[in-house]
């Protein structure tokens, strides 16, 4: 079973993914952590030194390797992962993969991301909640097309355990 979680940054992909993997007794992987391990530096450093286009190419390469090398897992992707290159097509066309979009409201994303923005390269320059709201709104408009193509759409507004229960029920 290969489960790939997609959704905007702050949607809970890593938190939900860890619990889901534990309950399913399969490995959990975080795509950003795997990229950092492969390239030997942080995502922020990659963005700073090489730019987003380089990062997206490396992201696709690492994702392809993970999909080929592993049989069972829950994978948390980055917020932009399904929106670049052939990544979404690659995920959707592989019958072994279940893609799950963790959908979260704009208000929830704003609350989760504002205090955490320094750790996120795309948000580090934003200094007000209004600017963050505008940024998220624009990104969600652009990315929703990709996210909504997932095999399963699950709202992640309640507790993590509630979200995991919804996913498990849908997978059975």
Helix proportion range: 40-55%
What portion of the residues fall into strands of 2 or more residues? 5-15%
**SSE arrangement, N to C:** EHEHHHEHEHHEH
Please give the alpha-carbon distance between the first and last residues.
Answer: 12 Å
The shape is globular
- Total number of distinct structural domains: 1
The major beta sheet can be summarized as: 5 strands, parallel
What is the CATH architecture term?
3-Layer(aba) Sandwich
Q: How many helices does DSSP assign?
A: 8
CATH superfamily: P-loop containing nucleotide triphosphate hydrolases
CATH class: Alpha Beta
Question: What spatial order of strands do you see in the largest sheet?
Answer: 2-3-1-4-5
Descriptive notes:
With 172 residues, the chain is an alpha/beta fold. It has a single domain, classed as Rossmann fold, CATH 3.40.50. It is 54% helix and 13% strand. It contains 8 helices and 5 strands, in the order βαβαααβαβααβα. The protein has helices spanning 13-24, 31-39, 43-50, 52-69, 87-92, 106-114, 129-147, 160-171; strands at 2-6, 28-30, 73-76, 97-103, 152-155. The protein has a 5-stranded parallel beta sheet. α1 crosses α8 (160-171), α2 crosses α4 (52-69) and α3 (43-50) crosses α4. The radius of gyration is 15 Å and the shape is globular. The N and C termini lie close together (12 Å). 28% of the residues are buried. The model has no long low-confidence stretch (mean pLDDT 92).
What order do the helices and strands come in, and which of them pair?
Elements: E1 2-6, H1 13-24, E2 28-30, H2 31-39, H3 43-50, H4 52-69, E3 73-76, H5 87-92, E4 97-103, H6 106-114, H7 129-147, E5 152-155, H8 160-171
Parallel strand pairs: 1-3, 1-4, 2-3, 4-5
């Amino acid at each position: 079973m290969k489960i790939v979680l997609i959704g905007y940054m702050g949607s809970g992909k890593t938190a939900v993914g860890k619990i889901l993997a534990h309950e399913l007794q399969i490995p959990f992987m975080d795509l950003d952590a795997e990229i950092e391990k492969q390239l030997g530096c942080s995502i922020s450093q990659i963005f700073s030194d090489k730019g987003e286009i380089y990062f997206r190419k490396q992201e696709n390469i690492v994702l392809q390797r993970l999909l080929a090398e592993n049989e069972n897992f829950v994978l948390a992707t980055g917020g932009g992962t399904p929106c670049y290159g052939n990544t979404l097509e690659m995920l959707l066309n592989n019958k072994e993969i279940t893609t799950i979009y963790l959908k979260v409201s704009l208000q929830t994303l704003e609350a989760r991301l504002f205090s955490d923005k320094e750790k996120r390269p795309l948000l580090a320059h934003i200094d007000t909640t209004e600017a963050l709201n505008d940024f998220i709104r624009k990104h969600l408009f652009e990315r929703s097309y990709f996210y909504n193509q997932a095999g399963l759409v699950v709202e992640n507004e309640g507790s993590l355990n509630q979200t995991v229960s919804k996913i498990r029920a849908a997978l059975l």
